[in-house]
Amino acid sequence: MKTRKPAVLLAAVTATAVLAACSGGTNAGDSGGGGGSKTLTLASVDQGSVEDVVKAFEKANPGVKVRYTTSGADQYQQQIRTQLSSGTAPDVMSVWPGNGNPAATYVLAKPGYLRDLSDQPWAAKLPDAIKTVAQYKGKTYNAIFGQNGIGAVYNQQAMTKAGLTPPDTWTKLLAFCRAAKAKGTPAFALGNQDNWVTQLVLYALVATNVYGADRDFDKKMQAGQATFAKSPWTTALDKYLTMEKTGCFQKNPLGTNYEASQGLAATGKTLGIVQGNWVIALLKGKNPKGTFTFKALPATDDTSATLIPAAAGAGYGVNAKTKNEGLALKFVNFVMSPEGMNLFVKKQGGLPSLPDTGFAVDPSLTELSTFIKANRTVPFMDQLWPNAKVQQTMLSGLQEIFSGQSTPDKLLKDMDADYKAGS
The pTM is what? Predict the structure, then answer.
């Protein structure tokens, strides 16, 4: 995501998208149509990184030409369904993980717009947290190549100055916050003026508190066997507010926006920030000499139970009606190859979705990489919700809680009502 806001947190992990201006989603191109076309039409959400991948794919496949255009995510989402239903969609297109926006996996796979990719060599290798949002009814439709995580990002120089180390249990986290506050440097910057930021601490706590004991929680929600209000979501939300009361954040989070929160963490006015790993590049931009490290945010006193929210980024789907299937599959499989995957995630500052790609992980992301390889991650919670309203209710409700205008009980009940309304 190029705006550095979590994608599916706000409709997508990537913040840009492309719109294929091709006709028929077919192979209109250099060799004049038919199965032998050497021109692939592509719509990609990866402006700024897809260019290098296309060049590498064309180099590996002499004579092949990839025709692609780019546009904003909003425009893409508005038009891709129209293109698919009218037969004018590209051969390959960006598809978001899970559910909740017009170009998400569930939304496009349900009416049969996407080709089943379960038979491709990489499909069975996807980690469970990725597979969950790449599939619809047990079949894989989305070639997801990268992922991001949410956790605590620490300013190493500020930590050294304070004489503190990253906590790995809930009890130590609260002690860390008290010690940081006593030294005059709050533990974490929190930019809750931007409502999408409000969910990040909560998601980090929900990962362990909810999914640590029940990896099937989402399935139970979908089956009507569980609710937000009568689940450990209440525990996670209570711990979020406990962090606030303990002084884990700077004064007036609601008066601090995302940009300002970056400045606090980058310059050592706080010891860190609870954010996605994408924030590290932004912190380095504000303090090139700084060293920043991603760590899991502890939510219990059992270190072995700690989980990290890790979101799949937008991937690629193949048009079910493409007349260029062979070339489309070749491109998707290149994206999922070590070469294609590493090209993408290096440009985007994320991590590959598959293990053993040979990707040189930035030292700041070592812990995130370790958790991903150990399957100690869960999807960003909203990726498996039936509609986008649940998340919007949560975001505005969290701001109201921080301003004293609402309560945790009311928020979770409102989220339940929106969830039950379905898609």
Answer: 0.77
